Amino acid sequence: MEFKDYYKILGVEPTATADEVKKAYRKLARKYHPDVSKEPDAAQRMSEVNEANTVLSDPEKRAAYDALRQQAAQGPGHDFRPPPNWDAGYEFSDFGGGDGYGGDFSDFFEQLFGRAARQGRTGHGAHGARHGFGSAAQRGSDHHAKIELDLLDAYQGAERMLTLHGGRLDAQGHLVQEERTLQVKIPKGVREGQLIRVPGQGAPGAGGGPAGDLFLEVHFKPDPRWRAEGRDVYQPVPVAPWEAELGASIEVATPSGTVEVKVPAGSKPGRKLRLKGRGIPGNPPGDLYLELNVALPPARTESERAAYTAFAQAFPRFNPRQGA
Questions:
Q1: Interacting residues of 74 by C-beta distance below 8 A, sequence separation 6+
Q2: In 10 A of CB 296, how many CB atoms?
Q3: How far apart are CA 219 and CA 146, in angstroms?
Q4: 165-183: per-residue pLDDT in tens?
Q5: In the chain, what are the domains?
Q6: pLDDT 10s digits, 233-251
Q7: What pTM, to 2 d.p., does this model score?
């Protein structure tokens, strides 16, 4: 996927003010709007211009895009993939900016802002009228942000100090990167993709109306010890060859504590042992699946190498490339 430089598409500098972005957009819109343009690629160019304006006219999206643009500038070539959860910690309001020429956005935009854009169109009920306030008092819009947590937070619950990043325009229309810290309670049993609602931490209300809410979308940090699928958790567990073949009772440190597990005799690599109810807590809780991997001990000493030689001699007809 090619990285799209929205500043080049609009023909403005990264330091451009909001007015400069708006003027550049309107100039290009007059040139490429399909209803009036004679350019052969007008529809495609208009779509690109609209997409660039949708991002650069919204201080929150622009702040996140600028951070990603700095990373992309350091990468080789034009094939670009945003890092997983690249936007974790960036705060977006549900009703973003943009001048409103409709059209399909690119895969690049969808990868970056598809979730935020869809929430921006549907919203979480940001209009004061939906909440019974008069025209003078209006409720602030809701905000949302993606956050990364440790899987253990889902097992135990936690309180975390989160740093959220955003953007705003100063008096001259320049983009200003800003951040705020927030103490948030993580409920026990939270799942990947779940929204945690933080009341009153969205945009301020107008005319005496209440502030909107903040919705935090949960994602788990990558961890080689385990991964979650819904409430089920998968954990790789190394076992010795003799434990796998002869069977054994072993102790395993799981997210919910150390447990003793029986490895059945004849277990093959990849076998899953299910521990019911030891996944992410809930009603009902998920299960924990232990995925067995056979680990070979190293042969560093003469006696260890002799043990491997004796092992090979004990199985003269064994060919791992043809099966046992």
A1: none
A2: 9
A3: 7
A4: 999 999 999 999 999 999 9
A5: 6-124+137-220 (1.10.287.110), 233-314 (2.60.260.20)
A6: 999 999 999 999 999 999 9
A7: 0.81
